[in-house]
Fold:
Amino acid sequence: MMGKIVLFTKDESLRKELSEVLPKGFKASPPATTEKNAFIFFDIDTMKPGQIRELHEKNLVIAVTKQKRTEPVMEAATFGAYEALQRPLKEEAVLTLLNELRDFTEEIKDNVPIAGLPPTPTCAIVGNSPIIMDVCKKLARLSQVDAPVLITGETGTGKELIAESIAQLSSRFGKPFVVVNCAAVPETLLESELFGFEKGSFTGAIATKEGMLKIADEGCVFFDEVGELPLSLQGKLLRFLQTQSFYPIGSTKEVHVDVRVISATNRDLSAMVREKKFREDLYHRLRVTAIHIPPLRERKKDILPLVHFFINRYHHTAPRPIKGITKEYFKKLLSYDWPGNIRELENIIRSSIALSKTNYVTTHELKELGSRSSPAKKTTLSETFASLLMPSIKEAIEKKEKN
Structure:
């Protein structure tokens, strides 16, 4: 356990100031030739901040300053300072910080190194659970069948990634892959975006424009959020699926193409059919083959390989090299239901890496989850601080609380 407080300063008044806010029995030692496993208070007003770079590899460094400007503190953080304190030092702030450091040092002892994380599979959906292995096998089979595919799953499960993989593994590899977001394009524009238009066919049509279906010729078109497709266009899409042909707006010339249609939705299309909100004939045309992506809460075994995948993707954004995650951090991830699925997990990992203060990703970076995750066990300041350095301090803190 880290058991030493060290002060780097040329200002003796700071040594006295720090000793006055530490409980009885604690003292700030002068620096040795080499320091390891210490809590270092570093005076950035009298010492060169660049020295923090060497110290923070084996210690936790707290920058201390009288300055009101943010630039010196930001510079110290760049060099690896864990936190910064403003002088004059306040007892509560120092004790709270040491309490946090104590919890942190205990947590990082039990960690999962990056090298120990599961490798990323070649399947488009990262994971090694039996559920996702079945999805990967089905994906491989569907890619070899040149028929429409309907991908279902909650928001954030990776439906577009599955669609791209089907296209890449099929005979249409290297051909156009055109995405149509049915929820993002206004109904008034969607028809012209899909089928194109002739010059002068409507106000503003100053030039002939090819539609997305023509652009996707010999490749694939991906209708994302197909459940949002207006009823007024569903009949026209049905005709295209039946004939692989269409008429651009304002044209009497039929255009023939060769396009594989892949669709995705987070809605229950069969229920929409019953409610007369989606055409039954179009539903069956889109669902010649189908694949369902289960939510992350049903395959929590995949969280660890996903963490590895996203750390590898975003490690370059970290203030310092990421060596691994703590097991407590991983437990927090497992205790959460992930309503936003993989997209939410990706954002949390990306945020944790960017906010990491050391070489390990810890629960300190999980504040973004807030009360939605299982709350950590709460302890009082005296309980946690008493175990910080030496057993005898417990008595000193108890006396301080009584007074």
Remarks:
- The first strand starts at residue 5 and ends at 8.
- Residues 177 and 220 are 5 Å apart (CA to CA).
